[in-house]
């Protein structure tokens, strides 16, 4: 096989066999020094592959760590059923924390708490660090030297992004309640619970006021002489 004539097939096979993203430099290592293509040739071939895979169940996509072959987003819900292990469920609090780090980085834990209005659980930060979605990028130059958090290359890869510039604008982000429904997150709807409680209190108050008005409006029953004698007895 002539590498120069079959560059496209070689690159496609390498991406499929690798099972992970490959940079242009990593792809160049597949070839001997005398047969190495130029980077612009590699990029052109990758673009062709991306077009070839368009509208198929898998796609060739560039992410932060390089190029890879992956299942298309449209087919992912069905393909995920191949694995018995259920995907992890992430709480609304975790997703809000991750979003704040992604959009406001570098940011401290205290600043996240100020924006959300509640404390950030240590479990949330530990989960994000263990997943390697966030990392400590420095310390804020204030008393206490709090850690500054930022997202990682693994975060970009997981969400299929090449860079932070590909993040949707805040105006494009859908309500987190919709995202929670799609992720099947089960958290108590505190707003609804509070509203129902207030509604119940209002109903009880209306009933009490109604009874009081009825008593005030009822005519007084005259006390007869027989009644008076009975009370005295």
Give the topology:
Blueprint: H1 7-18, H2 24-28, H3 39-52, E1 58-63, E2 66-71, H4 76-79, H5 92-104, E3 107-108, H6 109-116, H7 122-130, E4 134-139, E5 147-151, H8 153-158, H9 176-183, H10 190-217, H11 225-232
Antiparallel strand pairs: 1-2, 3-5, 4-5
Helix pairs in contact: 1-3
Summarize the structure.
The protein has about 230 residues and is mainly alpha-helical. About 50% of the residues lie in helices and about 10% in strands.
Beta-strand content estimate: 5-15%
Tell me the structural class: mainly alpha
Overall 3D geometry? Answer: elongated
Question: What would you give as the CATH superfamily of one domain?
Answer: Winged helix-like DNA-binding domain superfamily/Winged helix DNA-binding domain
| H-E order | HHHEEHHEHHEEHHHH
The CATH topology of one domain is given as: Arc Repressor Mutant, subunit A
Strand order of the largest sheet: 3-5-4
Share of helix among residues?
Answer: 40-55%
Q: What's the helix count? A: 11
Largest sheet: 3 strands, antiparallel
Query: Assembly type of the shown chains?
Result: single chain
Could you name the CATH class of one domain?
Answer: Mainly Alpha
Mean pLDDT: 78
The name of the CATH architecture of one domain is: Orthogonal Bundle
Rg result: 32 Å
Q: What is the total tally of β strands?
A: 5
How far apart lie the N and C ends?
A: 123 Å
Low-confidence stretches: 182-204, 214-233
